[in-house]
Each structure stands twice: as C-alpha cells, then as structure tokens.
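#structure-requests
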Amino acid sequence: MKKLILITLALILASCAGVRYADKPALEFEDIDYGFDVHYAFSDEHEMPRIAYIDEGSGDKTLLLVHGLASNAGFWRYNITALSRDFRVIAVDLPGYGKSQKGDYPYGMKFWAEMLDGFIAELGLENVVYVGHSMGGQIGITLSIEYPDAIDELVLAAPAGIESFSPGSGDWLASVFTMHGVKNTTEPAIRENLSINFYRWNSRWEWMVEERVRMAKAREMDEFAYTVVQSINAMLDEPTSHRLHQVNHPTLIVYGEYDGLIPNRFLNPGFPSAVFQKGHEAIPNSTLVELRRAGHMLMIERPDAFNVAVATFARSN
C-alpha cells in the first residue's frame, strides 16, 4: 500500500513538473520583452498594417530578419547584437504577429511579400540581405520572385517552401491545426512542441514556453491564433518548391543537421540534408551550409555558427 501511494505521488509530481507558468498573469503582445527597442512603420491611418521592428547597428548592408510560424522578432535575440557589429540589422514582426497590427488580413506568402516590399520602400532600405527563418524563408522565396528589386541577397534559414507536399497530405496537415488548438495547447504540450525544434532542448530557452503560455491569456490571442492557422494554410496553398529556379539572387541555404520539422516526419520521412540539397540544386546561384548538432531553431541553438555563416555570406557578395 505504501509503495502504491509513493508511485501515485511520483506520477502526480511528474505531471505537475511541466506546469510552471499557468498562474502567471497574461502577457500582452505589446509587453513582450525582445531585449531591444521597438519601432513602428506605418500609422493606424495608413493603408498598410502597422509593422513593429527592431533596428540596430549600421553598415553598407542591411540584414532584414524575418521570423517563422508562431514566433516574432524576439526570436532573433541571439543574433542581432553580433550581426549589428558589421551590418544594420532590422528584425520585423510580420503583420499578425508580435507587436505588429493584427486583423482580418489576407495572410499569405504574397501578402507578406507585398508588405515587406512596402516596408523596405518606406524605410528607404538599400543593399538588403533578406534573412528568413522557416516560414520566413518561404516568404523570402516569394519576395525574391515577385519583387526582385526589393532585395539584393537571400538567406534561407531552415526554410519552408523547399519541401513539397501532395494535395492530400497538405489537406491533412492543414486539418491538424485549428484556432481552438492554438489557443488551448497545454503548457507541457507547448514545451514538447518547442523541444522538437531543437537538437537538444535546454532549460535556458524556457522563456519561449513562458511567453507562449502567458500569451494565451492576452487580448489579441484570437487574432494571433487566426494568423497562425492562416499561415499554415498559406504555406500549403502558395507553394514555392516548384518555383525555386526563378530565384535569381545570390542565396545562402543554412540548415540544422538534425532538423526535426523539415522534412515533415509524418508525411515526408527522410533526412534534412536531402531536402535542402534539392533546394540548393534548384536555386541557380546558391550556397549550402549545414550546422552540426543543430535542429530547426538553428539561429537559437547554434547562434555563433549561424551568425558566422550569415556574415560570411553577406560580406562575400
């Protein structure tokens, strides 16, 4: 009996160990601490959504950092300081994400590409090196093709948009993600989902878990959940894998050796190297770099190696 009680107690404690932030207050999107000053482009009266961005450093070239699905400009916090020593570094919140304006917009690859083209023009940016992570990479491919004069070089970091999906598998993937699911994901599930993005999860990245758990209580959570669902649909509905040959900018593809998200382990089991090698072969003027012992969040997990790869590429063109 005593042994049974001890076992039951251990199970209860184990289940509670994954819940640390449930009792903390809501974290409004405008209050998320990125570690850098935040600026805004476009006023509420402008036809463009208001875009929040970080702007650090100076140099002959501007690195435009664009985050991936369900994240924000703060996910570049381990890269901005180092890269801003030699370049002007701008990290944006895409419309619908972070501190940028949210609403019933036609979120998608072409929509965001158009918004970023307008943002680049609004700030008068020149010699732009676009750096996009994951979904931000697919947006970058679209921007490169649709608005070739907006940027000069392209960095695709663990990019979506190279892996292709069959129509049936895409429909299944889209059905898995709903607004209800985004809003009501439990803290242990959030931590598990985030850990899949890394080769090895480390407790120093708990800030991502806390941020996401507390965001679920924020006033703009419904709008954020809508954006995430629309983003997933857009990645499937506006594929770029068949358009890679149209990318004419010098391009760096940098990926993690142990990317757990690309390729999709359920729909396209295989090795990340095979997917990104295929992209390298399809994009005419491209360079391929693999970061060892890194997962999908390579710019967070291996920031020094990532920063060196991006800076070396930017200096060489």
